[in-house]
Write a structure and sequence with these properties.
The protein is of the alpha+beta class and about 210 residues long. The protein has two domains: about 5-85, lambda repressor-like DNA-binding domains (434 Repressor (Amino-terminal Domain), Orthogonal Bundle), CATH 1.10.260; about 100-205, Jelly Rolls, CATH 2.60.120.10. The chain is about 30% helix and about 25% strand. The chain has five helices and nine strands; from the N terminus they run αααααβββββββββ. Strand 1 (about 100-105) and strand 2 (about 110-115) form a beta hairpin. Helix 2 packs across helix 3 and helix 2 (about 40-50) packs across helix 4.
Amino acid sequence: MTSATRQQTPTSDARTREAHEDAIALGLRVKALREAAGLSLRDLAARSGVSAPMLSQVERGETSPTVTVAGRIAAGLDLRLSQLLRLDEGDAVTIVPASERRRGGSRKRGHSFEVLTAGLPGQRAEISRHTLAAGGATGAPDGEGGHPLHEPGSRETALVERGSVTLVCDGQRYELRAGDCVTFDSDLPHHFENPTDGEAAFLAVVSAGLRRS
C-alpha cells in the first residue's frame, strides 16, 4: 500500500460517515416536521408523490434522497427545499432581539402579545408573552376573533406572571393567580380572560403534537 493510498482511505471513510450522519439528521428532521404537521407516512406520501416505504427509509436515515425526491418531500410539507435542508437558517444559535419580536393583539379586547421565539420552520415550541387589560380577553367566548386553535395534539403551558386570569377551555373555567401554571390541550376551543380591575400578564408555551394519549 502506497503512502498516497494510506492518506486517501481515512478521507473516504470520513466522507462516508459524514454522509451517513447527514442522512440521519435529515431523516429526523423530516419525521419531526411530518409529525408536527399531524401527517402519517401515507398522508405525506399522497401529498409529496414519494412512496411511504421510501419516506420511511429517509426518516430512518437508511437512504439519502436525491434533490428531486427531497424537493417533493419539502413540497409535501409546504416548505421550500432550502427550508427542509436548513439552507435558510444560520448558526445553531438563534437570537431574537427584543426590538424584533413579532407583536399583535386587539386593542378593542384589551389584549396584546409578543412572540419571543424565532419563526423557524420545524420549530416544535413557541413562547409568547400576553398582556390583558382590566376586563380584557384573548378572544370572544364564541371563538370569533379569539386565540386560534393550534394543530392537532398541541399542548399549551401558561404561567401567570402578575394579576389574575381565567382560562376558559372547552367550556370549563379555571381561575389562575400570579405564580399559577396550567397545561392544557390547546387544540380545544380556549381563551383567557382578565376579570379583575388591574392588568394581568402571562407567558404561554405551545408545543406541537405532544398531546398525551
